[in-house]
Design a protein that fits this description.
The chain has about 325 residues and is an all-alpha fold. Helices cover about 75% and strands about 0% of the residues. It is built from twelve helices and two strands; from the N terminus they run ββαααααααααααα. The protein has a two-stranded antiparallel sheet. β1 and β2 form a beta hairpin. α3 runs parallel beside α6, α4 runs antiparallel to α11 and α8 runs antiparallel to α9. It starts with a strand and ends with a helix.
Length: about 325
């Protein structure tokens, strides 16, 4: 039997073969299409896996979502600890200020030496001589830690340099303490030279000079905190420079002159100056029989004032950095 369809002749076997092939192809195509769609949407035996293949995809998706959530909530970088950050800021400030501040250190030392030479013709000895030598020695600290640090932070705020430190993951106290410690470090040679020269010039004993190991850092911290606060709170760098100069002048007049002959109001102002207690502690060591209890008390007051002034400077830094 032969069948003719549209001028094409096929055998029944061919028709049966082609028909079965067409049906199978159609079914296969339908199943393949459905399977592919299912595979793409929910996973097939090969893609997503019905026998354990779908679970890895879901686990990967779940883990990816969890990792994305963790990444979104994680901080960019951990904040540095206080002491490592302080050491890093100290080294950076020390290396930057080493070249520029050494000439100014010589100026501060020569200034104190000149004051002692001038006072030598007026003061013979006694309590006045002890006050002159102690005040001139601490004046070196005041010139660097108070005057220069006020100018530095005033220029740093006016030039936008605080933005650099504000973006670093370091505590605010480490920036203030690091800069203050770096500036105070430059005062050590000048203080030692001034104290030794003054002791020889006024014929004072040299046995108590070891107290400078405590006087320099404590007085330096108190004056540096005050200088940093002046520079950070001043609206313009010119006012910061003016505040530093006035503070150094107060340390000069109230620290070098003996307290016995000053008016009562000036004595009160002298007691408010942070460096006064360092001067008193150092001056007592020149006595024939030093009262070490009062020396320790003066150093304790100087340390307390230093902590307070550095705390004020830290708050001033935060305020200036966020404006």
């Amino acid at each position: 039997m032969r069948t003719t369809v549209k001028s094409r002749t096929r055998t029944d076997g061919d028709v049966m073969a082609h028909g079965v092939a067409g049906v199978v192809g159609a079914r296969t195509g339908a199943e393949a299409g459905a399977g592919t769609g299912a595979d793409e949407g929910a996973g097939t035996d090969e893609g997503a896996g019905t026998d354990g293949g779908a679970e890895p995809v879901r686990e990967g998706a779940d883990s990816g979502g969890q990792e994305a959530g963790q990444d979104a909530g994680a901080p960019l970088a951990p904040r540095a600890r206080m002491w490592p950050a302080l050491a890093a800021v100290y080294r950076a400030q020390l290396s930057r200020a080493r070249v520029a501040r050494i000439p100014l250190l010589f100026v501060a030392t020569f200034q104190s030496l000149g004051i002692m030479v001038l006072m030598r013709g007026v003061v013979d000895g006694g309590a006045e001589a002890r006050a002159v030598v102690a005040g001139s020695s601490v004046l070196v600290v005041a010139f660097v830690a108070l005057n220069l640090l006020a100018q530095y932070f005033g220029q740093l705020r006016a030039g936008g340099g605080l933005d650099h430190y504000a973006t670093l993951p370091v505590p605010a106290a480490s920036v203030v303490l690091g800069a203050a410690a770096a500036y105070a470090s430059f005062t050590v040679p000048g203080v030692v030279v001034t104290a030794v020269t003054g002791s020889v010039l006024f014929q004072l004993p040299l046995g108590g000079l070891w107290v400078l190991v405590a006087v320099v850092p404590l007085a330096g911290a108190a004056l540096a905190g005050l200088g940093a606060a002046l520079g950070l709170l001043a609206p313009r760098p010119e006012l910061a420079t003016l505040g530093g100069q006035l503070g150094m002048s107060a340390a000069l007049l109230l620290g070098v002159l003996p307290a016995g002959g000053l008016p009562l109001v000036v004595r009160w102002a002298r007691d408010l100056l942070p460096s006064t207690y360092g001067v008193e502690a150092f001056a007592r060591t020149f006595e024939p029989h030093p009262d070490w209890a009062r020396v320790v008390t003066d150093l304790g007051v100087c340390a307390a004032v230093g902590v307070l002034s550095l705390a004020v400077a830290t708050r001033a830094y935060r305020w200036a950095a966020t404006r």
